[in-house]
Design goal:
- With 148 residues, this protein is mainly β.
- The protein has a single domain, classed as Immunoglobulin-like (Sandwich), CATH 2.60.40.
- Strands 1, 2, 3, 4, 5, 6, 7, 8 and 9 form a 9-stranded antiparallel sheet that branches.
- The N and C termini lie far apart (82 Å).
- Helices cover 0% and strands 35% of the residues.
- A hairpin with a 5-residue loop joins β3 and β4.
- 22% of the residues are buried.
- The chain is built from no helices and 9 strands.
- The protein binds zinc ion.
- The site of zinc ion has 7 residues, from loops.
Length: 148
């Protein structure tokens, strides 16, 4: 006997609308507090100057969701006109906060010495502490996202 094999071919046409993340990607990422996201940090670290001029370092995952500080170690050196000041940090909740305040004035350079873990090599991030408000993004210039 002959066996008839019926082959059913089902052709399914799938229309896949591919979403490409074309959301206008800012060139400069801003910290959620209004501060500066420090390069090369993972989780991302935000440098933010509080109203009382202490510095807060807050941490975020890739989607800028807050994550607690781990073993990061931060020192900030402010090269102010009145002289250099070194700020040490301690853990406060999920963030690191400076034990002392930034020197008066602004427009001076700061160096953030950043250690990702206790064993990691420290690296330096240097930028100008410009506290004036940017007309474009309405953030302090040191945390400006306008790429200018
Ligand atoms: Zn701006």
């Amino acid at each position: 006997m002959k066996t008839r094999i019926h082959i059913l071919t089902v052709a399914v046409a799938l229309c896949v609308g591919l979403f490409t993340a074309t959301a206008a990607e800012k060139k400069v990422e801003g910290g959620p507090k209004g501060g500066r996201i420090l390069d090369k940090t993972s989780p991302k670290a935000e440098f933010y100057v509080e109203k009382d001029r202490t510095v807060t370092i807050a941490f975020y995952d890739a989607n800028l969701k807050p994550v607690p500080a781990a073993d990061q170690n931060v020192t900030v050196i402010a090269d102010a006109k009145s002289g250099k000041a070194t700020l040490a940090f301690e853990k406060n909740g999920d963030s690191l906060v400076s034990k002392t305040k930034l020197p008066d004035g602004e427009g001076y350079n700061v160096v953030v010495q950043f250690k990702q873990t206790a064993d990691a090599k420290p690296f330096n991030l240097r930028f100008k502490l410009d506290m004036s408000l940017c007309g474009g993004c309405k953030r302090a210039e040191y945390g400006c996202t306008c790429d200018h």
